[in-house]
Design goal:
This protein has about 200 residues and is mainly alpha-helical. The chain has one domain. About 85% of the residues lie in helices and about 0% in strands. The chain contains eight helices and no strands.
Length: about 200
């Protein structure tokens, strides 16, 4: 159980990328007063986690309704992780967003799109939730996701302090390291799904 939880934790940490996405959150909310920054962090994390829980609990039924096999979805999950992993390794960044519009920014709009979706709970995270819940169970999957989202909230809520402490260069180095880890997980998903399909 401990090994399964650790794998799920690493998987979600890599695809949700709370450390790398601190830069994105900071750029989107830098002009907001601190209370609104904390509110944006809370709304984005809660919304993203709720969506991921839905997929962890009911993703298999959705797949059955659409006539998609679990093996095919697992391979697709791995494929979805390849591009963001490559982008993270090559460019050292998760996304390039810099159009914060001062205090006139709609906090809920920014928190939901693009922060909650697709930044935190994008296709890769949702596909990972379905794949993991089928392999290790929804309970461990949701627990691992909750731990990563808690870290994301803490980092987002203190984004300005984190950004000043680490600096942009350190964040980019960490993002590249996470990208390598994510690429390895993507390959593992693809190979495992292919092996199950061919067995």
């Amino acid at each position: 159980m401990g090994e399964d939880f650790a794998r799920a934790l690493v998987s979600f940490f890599a695809i949700i990328d709370p450390i790398g996405n601190v830069l994105v959150f900071y750029l989107l909310t830098a002009q907001l007063p601190r209370p609104l920054q904390v509110r944006a962090a809370t709304v984005s994390v809660v919304a993203a986690f709720a969506l991921l829980v839905v997929f962890a609990l009911g993703g298999e039924q959705v797949l059955e309704f659409m006539g998609i096999s679990a093996e095919s979805f697992q391979v697709a999950a791995g494929a979805l992780l390849v591009f963001p992993a490559y982008r993270m390794v090559e460019r050292g960044q998760s996304l390039d967003l810099s159009d914060a519009d001062g205090v006139r920014v709609d906090v809920f709009q920014v928190a939901l799109v693009p922060l909650a979706v697709p930044l935190l709970s994008g296709p890769g995270a949702l596909a990972t939730a379905v794949s993991l819940s089928q392999g290790i169970g929804a309970g461990l999957t949701i627990a691992a996701a909750a731990a990563v989202f808690a870290m994301a909230w803490a980092l987002f809520a203190w984004a300005e302090a984190v950004f000043r402490l680490l600096g942009e260069s350190a964040l980019r180095v960490l993002t590249r390291l996470v990208g390598v880890l994510l690429m390895a997980i993507a390959v593992d998903f693809i190979l495992e799904g292919a092996r199950t399909f061919l067995a």
